[in-house]
Amino acid sequence: MWLFRFLPQPASPEAIQLDWLFVGLLVLTAFFLAVVFGPLIYFVIKYRKGSKADRSNPSSGSNVLETAWTIFPAIAGLSLFGWGADLYYRQQSPPADALEIQVIGKQWMWKFQHPEGAREINELHVPSGRPVVLTMTSQDVIHDVFLPAFRIKQDVLPGRYTNEWFTPTRPGIYHLFCAEYCGTFHSQMGGRVIVMEPAEYARWLAAGGPRPSLAASGERLYRELGCSGCHDQRGPVRAPPLYRLYGKTVALQGGDIVIADEKYIRDSILLPDSQIVVGYENLMPTFKGRISEEEIMEIIAYIKSIAETDPP
Ligand code: CUA
Fold first, then answer.
1. Are 193 and 145 in contact (CB under 8 A)?
2. DSSP secondary-structure letter at 210?
3. Does residue 275 contact residue 269 with C-beta atoms inside 8 Å?
4. C-beta 186 within 6 A of ligand 1
5. C-alpha span between 239 and 139 (Å, rounded)
6. What whole-number distance in Å separates Cα of residue 71 and Cα of residue 93?
7. 306 lines ligand 1 (CB under 6 A)
8. Beta-carbon count within 10 A of 139 CB
9. Model pLDDT for residues 9-45, shown as the tens digit of each residue
């Protein structure tokens, strides 16, 4: 049985760490509550109207006491801050070897895409023992993926990518809620996270039959939409090469330097004239309205897959 009956059983090491932080906060708060309210109640009773308590002795002050009750709470409060900040930063930086799942929220459902190509709705199957990072965006309004058993919660925004990650360690079925009011059926916008043993997960992936990986679907789109015509450097039009691009810095006209991450690629597809690479002309048409969020994620998966590859 977990420490708190009023929280769901934690299902990842990160969740247990967060619970300990919560315990720390509770203990410190309870301590100060006792230190302040204990004497307060004692004195209220002792010096109540009509009591015979001795009221003659005026306070003389104590530098030692004053210093102690300033320094001790400062240290205790800052330690808690340091503890919390450490956990927060760890929660903000997913491990490099994490399994990346792409999540798209829309009124009122969740869509998930696995790197191997499996897709599901309102259900997310993940293997235990390996960090999972969710790369999330919304097709319409702001949603929020809340996984109470993993103690994580992150807004899902249209036009942006946000992340959250966890390491599921206990196979089982866990709640997924939308935690941002998003319209009429917000309360029904939920789902389940199904944590499976790795072998079972592999069987589950295989059960869907052979299907193209996300990166392979992205490459197909890259050719179908005509991206390859310019970006493959074979035709007359020159466009920035996409091999060895992901994760690198890119110099833009106007002097900005950006990192070629998911958002950069997404913006380059939808708002191509907003960031022109130094040395290139503003020629690319926008793909706004011609490409879905899923397809953008597939193309990003493709560009990621050639991040360490030289052009053929
Ligand atoms: Cu989606 Cu609330």
1. no
2. -
3. no
4. yes
5. 28
6. 33
7. no
8. 16
9. 889 999 999 999 999 999 999 999 999 999 999 999 9
